[in-house]
Amino acid sequence: MKIRIAASIALAAGLAFGATGCSLIAPVATVDPYAPSDGITVSTDGVDVRNMMLVADETGENQNVVFGSVNNSGAPATLSVKFVVDGSAAATAEFKLDEGAQLFGNPEDEASIQLVSVDAIAGSTVKAYFSVNGGAEVEHNVPILDGTLKEYQAYVLSAPVEEAADDAVATDKAATDKADTKTEAPAAQ
After folding, report:
1. What backbone torsions phi and psi does residue 84 show, to the nearest 5 degrees?
2. CA-based max dimension of the chain
3. Using the 8-state DSSP alphabet, how is residue 120 labeled?
4. Do the domain assignments include residue 50?
5. Residue 104 phi, psi (nearest 5)
6. 1 within domain boundaries
7. Residue 59 and residue 164: Cα distance in Å, rounded?
């Protein structure tokens, strides 16, 4: 009788260990830090860069640098990001970070927008080197997105302000020329 009880306990222990043994030796993925969105996360010198991505404009030639930052360094800081394509620097962006949290790339806040131009298409990544106040560089691959996904459509910018102004002047000039041509046409008859 005692042998049956001991065998039952040993069998129950073996089944319990067999059913849960994998979690004893396998790493638990939920304890590893990761970026839960499409962007990347970088931490260096008291500054956290969260969900950084480049969002291509309507032409695909320029990218809006979109991210959130948390400056825990105790003083204002300068974040430099050097984007590298095919081994050579494609663009550099610098951001002045106040203490606390800030958002960059928001089209409703023109002061937060900084465009870069890297020769890469949406859906790819570009190598970037991050440094705070000229300190050591941290390397990461930053994704390039476009307005395909609804949540990023607001970050797709139209033509840069200078180009849009030039286009507006050209359009006004063309309209004026066309009006002048119409005015002159009846006089020529």
Report:
1. -125, 130
2. 123
3. -
4. yes
5. -130, 150
6. no
7. 12
Asked whether residue 146 is domain-assigned, the answer is yes
CA angle 99, 75, 128 (to 5 degrees): 75
Q: How many domains does the chain have?
A: 1
Q: Which two tokens stand for residue 42?
A: 């970088």
Q: Where in the sequence is the domain holding 47, given as residue range(s)?
A: 37-173
**180 in a structural domain:** no
- Look-up of token digits 């930053």: 142
Residue 164 is inside which H or E element, if any? helix 161-188
Q: Are strands 88-97 and 138-145 parallel, antiparallel or unpaired?
A: unpaired
pTM of the model: 0.68
Give pLDDT tens digits along the chain (189 positions).
Answer: 678 887 788 777 777 766 665 666 677 777 777 677 789 999 999 999 999 999 998 888 899 999 999 999 999 999 999 999 888 878 999 999 999 999 999 988 888 889 999 988 889 999 999 999 999 999 999 999 998 989 999 999 886 554 444 444 444 444 445 444 444 444 444
Query: Token digits for 85?
Result: 């394509």
The domain that contains 138 carries what CATH number?
2.60.40
Residue 96 · residue 46 · CB < 8 Å: no
**Cα 120 to Cα 142: distance, rounded to the nearest angstrom:** 11
Integer Cα distance of 113 and 128 in angstroms: 18
